[in-house]
Amino acid sequence: MNNQTRVIAPYQLFFIFLISRAVVALTFYQSILFNGISPDSLISSALALFVNLLFCVPACLCVKYNKNPLDTKAGRILYLIYFIYFAGVNISRFAFFACDKTTHGDSPLFFAVLITAAACYGAYLKIEALARFSLMCAVLSISVLIAIVLLNIKNFQIMNFMPFFVGTKAETLKNSLIFSSNSIEPALFLVLQKKCDKANAKPLFLGIIASYLAIFIMLLFCIGVLGSAAPLFAFPVYTLFQMTAFKSFSRLDIVYTAFGFFALFSKCAVIIYSAGECIKRVNKKGEIIFLFISSLTASILIYRRFFSEITSGARWFYLIITAVFLVIVPICFLMFSRRSENEKSI
C-alpha cells in the first residue's frame, strides 16, 4: 500500500474509537435494558468492556495475518451492508432522541435526513478531516464530562446505590451483552488501520477502554445523583445534563447536548466513510447518493421497528448482528481465506 494513503496518526485513530464508543451514552435509551438503569448496571458496563475487548481480537488477527475481509469482494459486500445498517441504528437513535427531548412535534424524518446529509458530507471530506474533527469532539466531550462531575459532586449521594443489586444475576449478564451490541469499532478498525501511518491494535483497545471509563463515570453519576428516580427517565444521561447548573447559568444541557451532537455526527460520518471504502469503484457522486439513500432508508426502517416497541427479540437481534460481523465473519476469513501476499487498498 502506498504510504501516501496513510493520512492519520495512531493518536487520531484512538480518538475516533473513543468518540465512536463513548457517544452512545448521549442517546442511551434505558428501556433497552432488561431492568432499566440501576446500580448493578455498573457491573454490566464493566463486563461489557471485557466482551468488547474480546470482540476486537478476531479483527486484529485478520489484520496481523493479512486476511482482512475487506481485501475480498465478498468481505466488502458483507461489511458494506453492516456499515449501512449501523449507520441506520445511530441515525435512528438520534432522530428518536431529538424528537423526544429537544423539540416539540418535529418529524423524526427531518432529523434523520439532517444527520444523514451531514454525515455523508463529512464522509465526502475523507478520513483526515474526520480525524481532526474527532479530536476536537474528544477534547470537548472530555471537558463536558469533567464539568458534569465537578458540578454534580454536591448532589452525589452514596445512599442512592442501595440496594446495589436490583435485578438478577442473569439480567446483569444479559445487560452486559446488550451494552456490547453497540460496538462497531472492530469493524471500523478493518478499514481505518490501512489509513494509519503506524497500523497496530493499540488505538483500538485503548480507545475502547477509555470510552468505557467515560461511560462508567456517566452511569455512576446518573445513579448517584438521580437515585431511585433514574429508571423514570428514558434518557438518564440527558437528564443529568439538565440538572447541571453553574451559578446563575441553568439549562447547560443545551451546551452539553450540542457537543454530543458533534460527536454523533463524527461517528456517523466515519461509519458512512467506511461504507464508502467498500465501494470505491463507484464514481464519487454516485457513491454519496447511494450512501445517503441507503443510510436514510435503514434509519427509517430501524426507527419504525425498534422504537415502536422494545422486545426481547429486538434486543437479541442487535447482539446477534454484532456477533456475526465482529466475531464469526472475521474468524471464517482467518480459517478459510488466503493470506494476502501484498497489502492492498480497500
Task: Give your account of this protein's structure.
By secondary structure, the protein is mostly helical. Helices cover 68% and strands 0% of the residues. It has twelve helices and no strands. It starts with 9 loop residues before the first helix and ends in a 10-residue tail after the last helix.
Helical region count? 12
Q: Strand portion, in percent?
A: under 5%
Helical percent range?
55-70%
**Average residue-wise pLDDT:** 82
Helix and strand run:
HHHHHHHHHHHH
Gap from first CA to last CA? 10 Å
Provide a short characterization of the protein structure:
The protein is an all-alpha fold and 346 residues long. The chain has helices at 10-22, 41-64, 73-102, 108-124, 126-152, 169-180, 185-192, 202-226, 236-243, 253-277, 284-306, 312-336.
Question: What distinguishing features does this structure have?
Answer:
globular; 12 helices; 346 residues; mainly alpha; disordered C terminus; 68% helix
In terms of topology, how is this protein built?
Layout (H helix, E strand, L loop, with lengths): L9 H13 L18 H24 L8 H30 L5 H17 L1 H27 L16 H12 L4 H8 L9 H25 L9 H8 L9 H25 L6 H23 L5 H25 L10
Helix pairs in contact: 1-5, 1-8, 2-6, 2-7, 2-8, 2-12, 3-4, 3-10, 3-11, 4-10, 4-11, 5-8, 5-10, 8-9, 9-10
